[in-house]
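Sorry to interrupt, but I need a hand with the structure work. Leave the record below and I will have a look:
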Amino acid sequence: MLLRNFTGSGGSLRVFAIDRDATYTSKTLRLGHVRGGHARLRPDGSPDREFFEHWMSDLEGAAANEIAALVSSSQRTIDLDDYPTLPWLASLQHNRSRALMGYLKSRLEAEGMTGTELEIQTAILDVTARQVLGAWEASKEANGDPKDRWDSMVGILTRLRCDVMRYEEPRLLISDGFAAQYGVAPKHADKYDSTGKNWAKHGIGVPQHQAAAFTIPLTTQVALHFHDGRQRKYLSAQQINQRTIYAARSFVAMPSDWTLPHDPLGDVAGWIQTQRFVRSMIAKNA
């Protein structure tokens, strides 16, 4: 849903694939879309291709309104009570990512699960996106059972400080790693050696509750920075872009009329090359 905030003058994106060495131009509706990727089986065994799409659209619509209000404001730090859908969107994006779903599918198959592609996809969606959406619905009920409203990623993000980064010029990229997890929180640093801390820059090997920060680019000029500090922590556009790229598993995108190299964006080509290598290592060890 945010991709349209990163298009060029012609409504297109310049896309850098991460799971392969390819660069191409795409419209937003084509990027990351997998036909039937959210289809499921009903209890009676018939296919349902609309259930999740409609439910996800409800959450996305609510989040889009909050994002528009935030971007048009001048706030430098926000209280998520004023933007309650944003952490739910982050959790939904994480749980429905093709990278996570692909990993879960490979694990299920390795453990001997059998069934049709749609049966396996239904099982995965039921423990990922459906759990998030169900908890989001329950969260809107003031007297609902807390356990029905619980979501681990939402709980983590709402405990963190959320600073808004605003830049005078358009400089931010986007990737399929919507909420980019980065690093190790200082209080957990002694649990990881230097190699583990390097992997943590790519959101690997560290549970979300031990991460140092999360960043979310909302437009080419506005991003969110979640961290556990008490004071505002500024990040440059280059730092945001590096984290966005290091969180990517499928693609990185920018307006189609931008060109590289471009110093204000940072070392985009170098970071993409690094992330392609990291992605290949993830695939080998999945």
